[in-house]
Design goal:
Protein name: Outer membrane protein beta-barrel domain-containing protein
Number of strands: 16
CATH topology: Lipocalin
Shape: elongated
Radius of gyration: 26 Å
Largest sheet: 10 strands, antiparallel, barrel
Strand order of the largest sheet: 1-2-3-4-6-9-10-12-13-16
Structural class: mainly beta
Distance between the termini: 51 Å
Organism: Polynucleobacter yangtzensis
Number of helices: 1
Low-confidence stretches: 1-24
GO molecular function: aspartic-type endopeptidase activity
CATH superfamily: OPCA outer membrane adhesin/invasin
Mean pLDDT: 89
CATH architecture: Beta Barrel
Strand content: over 45%
Amino acid sequence: MRKESKIIPWVVAIFTSVTYAQDSSITIATQTGNTLGLTFSGYQYKEPSLDVVISAPLLGVDYTGTYAFGNDWFAKADARYAYGFAKYSGSGTQNNIPYSYYDLRGLVGYDFNFTELGGFVLAPFTGIGYRYLFDNQGGQTTSGANAYNRSSTYVYLPIGVTHRMKVNDTHKLETVFEYDYLIQGTQVSQLSQAAPYLPNFTNQQTSGYGLRLSSMYQFDAWSVGPYVTYWNIQNSNTVTQTITVNRVNYRLTAYEPANNTIEAGIKVAYSF
């Protein structure tokens, strides 16, 4: 009887420790919560037809709020802001150009849990996105060309999937693949900054897409990993305006040329 009494507490202790380990193991389902992130990236914008290149190191902050409804459906709200000083190369060069953008998104998605295939989650999602970029380039390039401010607005449809898997009982890996369909792009060129007699132009873009890839290694409340964002936008519509200089009328035609943008960097985030 004494031997049995010694064995029983050990059995209870082992069972309790196993149960605690299972309960404390992280989940790979989408969870309700908040995430704050800090990013460091390299950014490059190109207009191949005009040999224009704008490049900048960017420092960014972002926030994601997630609500899990409890039936595998979830909703997310994303906000991101990035800022840096850019270098322009085209009609001459120009340095230390204030350059910034922000990106706002609302998303909905659904978790598919594949426990029988090694244990991972695939969570497709979609929603609506709004991106605004401001290029504060007013001034002169090294060749004497007058520069002007430009702003760019994209409304787009994100379509993506999140893959989430456990690395061990406390760490997990989350990888996101995303395609962004451009619904509407608007470019505003403030040519009046380059010369007072020039009008400002607003051009519309309706053809283009974006791609995003990120992979975050998560441990406890922290996560870190690389990300890449790419945009490919086609020629805008053509806008014609008439100006008068010294009593002579001139017709000016402007369009926004096809361009592409790539941003690659690393992100550190904290979830709470």
